[in-house]
Every structure is written in structure tokens, then in C-alpha cells.
Amino acid sequence: MRRWVPTVIATTMALAATPAAVASTGQAASGPARTGQARAAASSTATATVSSTGAFSSTAAASSTAAGKVNCAKVKCIALTFDDGPGRYTSTLLDLLRRHHTKVTFFLVGAQIGKYPSIVRRMAREGHEIGDHTYDHPHLTTLPDGDIRDELTRPRDAIKKLTGRAPDLMRPPYGDTDERVGGIAAELGMAQILWNGTSRDWELRDTAAITRKVLGLAKRDRVVLMHDVWPETVKAMPKILTSLEKKGYHVVPVTALLRGRSLAAGEVYPVGGWN
Predict the structure, then answer these.
(1) Are residues 196 and 24 in contact, defined by beta-carbon separation less than 8 angstroms?
(2) Is this structure's pTM higher than 0.85?
């Protein structure tokens, strides 16, 4: 894992006035090195809803509906985000989220999208936020410009084909970004979503430990990194959701933390990301 230092990108300056911005908490980078499981991700700046034809609607009303009309300026919100799917356990997670009337953000890896197209459609249909997590989960900063575009464009196009709307959020694998990556993301119309708390589920691989870790991270407006490709993570979710609810938290998609503000293409959120 490399240590990431936020690049000075002009669009990030607007975040200074946003109450949702949170300082770095020194959490480690996303996910393990390639483990043989393909990874996938996709998203939108407004929480997505889907029409009867399956196409996205990204109006302010859609965001309000998908987020359960939660006003994060008035209540405690936390964003749980899931990388590297869809996978074999994602449908179980979606069942649980539906029972809890909860929306989250999924960052999909392109190599997985074609394996689980019905899951991607279901994510959109049920109002979850979908983001792009590259096609093959590389360190983007090590790639030439053309390869970075390819890594971001292939999942974006696949998501658009399945849902009717291209994602406008992306998450760089390992949180590995710089001004060049940000510029290409901006060119493709996507903001960059990092995190300021990680479950480290890819390392812990233990349901009880993951539960303790996530609940220990709970803080208003925090963006928490998780992975729906690990069965231990999905098994931890019932207790995580129930405990957060008892503590007065509302679990929401990332963009609900912005209180209606839109992210600019290429912008990094949350400010500081991780160290």
C-alpha cells in the first residue's frame, strides 16, 4: 500500500465550507492486493432511483426518496460504502438493506459487473448509489493516461448499459489518486470518493472483529469503507445496522452527507481522505 497525500485540486476548496467534511483518521488503504476475486464499482452524485423502464432519475427528489428523506443537517448520518462487487454475497446484503429500509453506496469493479448484471440492476432499482471502482482494481497513479481512461470508462459504460445512467462517482482503488487521475476523472464527469474510516474487513476476515471495528468508527458524517465480497462482512451487517440505529444513526449514501450540495467532476470527498 502506498501512502496517499491529497492533491491540491481547485474544486476541493468548496468542501471547506461543508459541514459534512471530515478530517483524516489515519485509516489504511482500501482492500488487499489482488486476491483472485475480481472487483467492481459504479455510482452517481445523486442517490439513484429507477423508473419503470429501468432508467435512472437523478433529480433532487430522487435523492431525497432514495435516502429515505433523511436530513443529515438535523440527524446523525453515516455513509457505509461497499467496494469490489458485485459478488456472490451482494444479494444477501441487498435483502438485509431492504429490510432495514437502508440505502448505501456501492463501488463496482468492471470485471464483476458482467457476472452479476441482475444484481447491478437491482441496486439501481432499490435506490442505492452506484459508483465506478475501475475495471481491474489497479493503482491508477502507476498507469499511463490512456490506461486510466480505459479502467474508468469500461465499468462506466457497463453500468450505463444496465441502469440507463452513467455513474458520476468513482473510487480510486487503494485511495491511490493524484492530480493526473483527478483530471481524467473530471474529464469523464466523475467526482472522487475516498473514506475516513475503514472496516479493514479484507484483513480481519472475522465477523465479530469487523462488527467491533465498524461500530468503533461510528461518527457523524463519516464515510466508512467496507467490501461486500467478503462473507464475514455481510454476516456482520445485521448487528452493525441494528446497533447504529439504536445509537441514533441514519445510514445513508455518500451524497446524502452533502446536504444537497453537488460534487464537482474530479473533486475529492471527503477532504483529506486517509493518510
Answers:
(1) yes
(2) no
